């Protein structure tokens, strides 16, 4: 019997992607970086592909290679590469790479020449985030180098792309500025002889709210897993991850009993404490001490006292809880249990971070298999 479990509803992932699929004419790149935001990269990728995604997005070549090793043949883009990245493996495994500067482009070309076939590249332009991508000043030079590489067939320019600043509020005016900057960069590329098949800009929030950002391909991550990028709006998505644990031990303690390290919580009256066998080594943030929401015995409660490395405690009052009872930390919300959004609000972070942490529960992920 499991003691703690992170369960992934693959049907929800497929359904969420299908929902987005139905609202755009662009192709969908399901983003499965960070082990699929904690949901398992390969299984989530397969569910997303079943839902109509045609591309997968990851950060590193290693993440892309792991998908290939699991037999996934769909196009994969790896977008965060450092000098010395394994471009040979990328070319050999048909992995698309993002290139932001001429130095990395030269490395990619070398690998293509060694392999005797072109490397598939997406040129990244920085439209304001000031993270990856060539600045507007560097862009013409990158385009020129890419056009040359295209001419000698060391590079196939598959895409041009960029990423939003206000990823969680796509109606922000900077989004319009970035669309303009992106369009200007595309014009420069076209004049330089680079006409990529895929122009892409939109993350989840823009995919759900800004059709004018869709171009040829959208790159939702969070929404594939059923979480909303915009607080207070659900977009009809279904959260795929449920994190649960079983009560290990219950005990009665007297009024005034201090609970867990440093006694940051005290029982106000005689009460029942339930010990839950997961802690920060399993993904439960230590910041959830005294605030993390849970459901036990059909009742919403809060963590009492410090979250430890392997365990935490819940003050259950006089409720009839027993060892072995299931504690839900978060799930789809359908049964009244907390959601990843509730956890994010409780510890002042974003739902992205909650699910990504809980993917690392000590127990392996459990998958609700895709139905036919
Ligand atoms: C993570 C990421 C995405 C997906 O973002 P969501 O907000 O999860 O949809 C898209 N593009 C890039 C470049 C990313 O790093």
UniProtKB/TrEMBL annotation:
The modification N6-(pyridoxal phosphate)lysine is found at residue 33. SMART domains: Ala_racemase_C. Its cofactor is pyridoxal 5'-phosphate. The active site is at 33 (proton acceptor), 261 (proton acceptor). InterPro entries: Ala_racemase (IPR000821), Ala_racemase/Decarboxylase_C (IPR009006), Ala_racemase_C (IPR011079), Ala_racemase_N (IPR001608), Ala_racemase_pyridoxalP-BS (IPR020622), PLP-binding_barrel (IPR029066). Substrate binds at residues 131, 309. It comes from the Bacteria. HAMAP family: Ala_racemase. This is Alanine racemase. The gene is alr.
